[in-house]
Design brief:
alpha+beta, 2 domains, 4-stranded mixed β-sheet, 4 helices, 40% helix, 18% strand
């Protein structure tokens, strides 16, 4: 069995699915110590759990803030973050990963721009005057 918990401000919504993805049960629990205990007991009551996923999305205003930001700013913000160095703690690791991905995106974007500039064939700014080239001059049509 696999459990999932969607965290909310006033309650947590939990669900259980079996090993082939069939929905088995859903239940809501209050966000207080007794609710957490009941949620854990409820999950365990469905058999051996192989995993439990928890979605913690944070406050709505924190989720809405990035909407509408240009891509460059969405990359710069995590790239500038100072997440610490403790990669063994889940909290530290979840702050380090976005920073590394953002920095990799910046590096690859710069590298791609450099490669494009180096590999771009020279293109004349205007079409050459074809009338000066005898090979490109119009040829008379054969008479029939």
């Amino acid at each position: 069995m696999v459990g999932g918990v969607d965290t909310r401000t006033d309650f947590h919504q939990a669900a259980v699915i079996d090993s082939i993805g069939r929905h088995r049960a859903t239940e809501s629990f209050p966000t207080d110590p007794d609710g957490y205990r009941r949620l854990l007991d409820w999950l365990r009551s469905h058999g051996d759990l192989t995993a439990v996923g928890v979605e913690g999305t944070g406050p709505a205003e924190a989720r809405e803030k990035p909407r509408g930001l240009p891509t460059g700013e969405l990359i710069r913000q995590p790239a500038r973050s100072r997440p610490g160095t403790d990669t063994h703690a889940p909290a530290g690791a979840t702050r380090i990963v976005p920073r590394r991905l953002a920095r990799r995106h910046q590096y690859l974007t710069e590298e791609t721009a450099d490669a494009d500039a180096e590999l771009r064939p020279p293109v004349p700014r205007r079409r050459p005057n074809r009338s000066r080239c005898p090979e490109s001059a119009p040829r008379p049509r054969p008479s029939s």
